Amino acid sequence: MIWQLFITFARIGLFTFGGGYAMLPLIQREVIDRFKWLNETEFLDIIATAEMTPGPISINTATFVGYKMAGFWGSVLATLGVILPSFVTITLLTVLLNKLKDNKTAQDGLKGMRPAVTAMIITAAFSLFSQSVTRPLDLIIFLGVVVCSWQNWLNPIIILLLSGLLGLVCGLC
Amino acid sequence: MLWNLFINCFKVGAFTIGGGYAMIPVMKNVFVQQKKWVSEEEFIDMVSMVQIVPGAIAINASIYLGHKLAGLSGALVATLGSILPSFLIILLIASSLTGWYQYPLIANFFKGVRPAVVGLILVAGVKIGKGILKSKQSLVLAFVFGALILWLKIHPVWLIIAGSVSGIFLGRQKR
After folding, report:
1. What is the rounded distance in angstroms from the CA atom of residue A153 to the CA atom of residue A150?
2. A interface mutation test: which of B21, B121, B159 has the most A CBs within 10 A?
3. Based on the domain organization, do B78 and B153 belong to the same domain?
4. Cα gap B5→B10, rounded to integer Å
5. Quick one: pLDDT at residue A22?
6. Contacts with B155 from chain A: Cβ below 8 Å
7. Assigned domain for B111 exists
8. In terms of domains, do B22 and B84 share one?
9. Position with higher pLDDT, A37 vs B102
10. What is the average pLDDT score of chain B?
11. Where are the domains of chain A?
């Protein structure tokens, strides 16, 4: 189990380009669809918790899933797994990376990934939508968040806290 | 040096809420302005460079800076320093608070938070996608990729690979 966690998160780490949200579709595919370590609601809660606590989403998710599936060592191995690909690449290839930065082919490759990453993130949002938007209130929150975040009116932490409070207050009524 | 590196990365990791991108400006403040370990120019170069490498940008940045300042042990220490705060906090939440999710107040709070998370993800995706609107080819590719994920359940890894190959191919053609 611990080994499986390590390998899975190393694979997720290896194929995440563009940081943060780009990792979510991969986590969704591996952790929810394939191994069923989490369901979609738990996944959304982890992303929310990750946004409201320090540190990158990838690390937070790895730690959380690792702990849930195999306790302390599970969390250690999953977290190490997710950073291993970056660690190895950067420490081994520092010199090469300095050249690659201005290399046309590398730039083209990165640019080509962008449509894929965009499609991945947007479809991830689609598939999570039905799980989380079940009441009229949820739809109001969802639309409000889309507007506030698109216009950069509020930062994500405030958005999440306000949405949570709204859910809490309406739950009492 | 190593201890100093560890403490400063730990500080950056502990005080930046809101994911990896939020860490970069804080990191710049510590490494460039306060400690003067790297120049502003080097830092900006570094940020664009670590995006070629897979993984979280903030973690990549600390691995790179640690390696640059103190070799392999520097890279290790900087990485540990910057992931330790989030690791410990999540460990605490996972070990003590999971039961709390069942508690009605917390459950209602998270019920409100979930649609918000989906909204944030959607906006993040569209914002990343804004850059590709300039070229018809990328726009078509994005739609094809989206259809492949939704209907054929293609693994995202293959799309990343297909995307980069097509990017290199189209780039070659243009030149």
Report:
1. 8
2. B121
3. no
4. 8
5. 82
6. 29
7. no
8. yes
9. A37
10. 86
11. 2-132, 133-173
In a domain, B21, yes or no: yes
CB atoms B64 and A15 under 8 Å: no
Band the pLDDT of B131: cuts 50, 70, 90: confident
Say which residues have a Cβ less than 8 Å from residue A144's Cβ, sequence separation at least 6: A163, B119
Show the domain range for B93.
2-99
Count Cβ–Cβ pairs < 8 Å, chain A vs chain B: 369
Minimum distance, in Å, between the CA of residue B26 and any CA atom of chain A: 12
- The total number of residues shown for chain B amounts to 175
Q: Is A140 exposed, middle or buried (0-12, 13-18, 19+ CB in 10 A)?
A: middle
pLDDT tens-digit readout, A63-114: 999 998 999 999 999 999 999 999 999 988 877 777 777 788 888 888 888 8
Cβ of B125 and A89 within 8 Å?
no
Examine the predicted complex and report whether its ipTM is higher than 0.85: no
A31-A65-B84-B122 Cα dihedral, nearest 10 degrees: 50
Of the two residues B66 and A23, the one the predictor is more confident about is B66
Place of tokens 């209130």: A137
Residue B113 located in a structural domain:
no
Write the DSSP symbol of residue B17: B
Same domain, B150 and B90: no
